[in-house]
Amino acid sequence: MKKFFSIIALLLLSVLAFSQESFDLDKLLKEKPTKLVIDFTGTLTPDQAQALENKLVAFDDSTSTQIAAVIVPTLNGNDIADFNIDLGRAWGVGGKAI
After folding, report:
1. pLDDT per residue as tens digits for the range 18-65
2. Residue 31 phi, psi (nearest 5)
3. Average pLDDT, whole number, for the chain?
4. What share of the chain is helix, strand, coil (3-state, %, to 5)?
5. 71, 38 contact by CB (below 8 A)
6. HSE value, Cβ hemisphere, 13 Å, CA-based, for 62
7. Per the domain annotation, does 98 fall within a domain?
8. Dmax over Cα atoms in the chain, in whole Å?
9. What values do phi and psi take at 13, rounded to 5?
10. Mean pLDDT along residues 3-9
11. Is the separation of the CB atoms in 42 and 58 below 8 Å?
12. Who has the most CB within 10 Å: 6, 19, 51, 59?
């Protein structure tokens, strides 16, 4: 059932409410990632990002659940739950490969 209906859990962390930058969410939805941890804000150190990536890959390999962690600077007013679903579907989180 993993390939059909995995639990889609994208962690949209660090949504900065006072961000002055414009972040292109549409472009983000069109890009397919090669990793499970993507930090567009530089919040995580490279070591932290790699450690989290290793844990998420191990979790994916040992369960029927796939989790991706995405940190973006802003949602540009979009609802976090709706964007979470849109991003999970666009990227195929829970599918055969990310």
Report:
1. 344 567 888 888 888 889 999 999 999 999 999 999 999 999 899 888
2. -85, 130
3. 77
4. 35, 15, 50
5. yes
6. 6
7. no
8. 42
9. -95, 160
10. 37
11. no
12. 6
What integer pLDDT is reported at residue 96 of this predicted model? 56
35 vs 50: CA distance, rounded Å: 10
9 — pLDDT class (breaks 50, 70, 90): very low
For residue 36, which of 18, 49, 26, 24 has the smallest C-alpha distance? Answer: 49
What total number of domains does the chain contain? 1
Whole-angstrom Cα distance, residue 57 to residue 20? 33
Domain that holds residue 43: 8-91
3-state SS assignment for residue 85 = helix
**Confidence grade of residue 7 (pLDDT, cut at 50, 70, 90):** very low
Cα–Cα distance for residue pair 51/53, rounded to 1 Å: 5
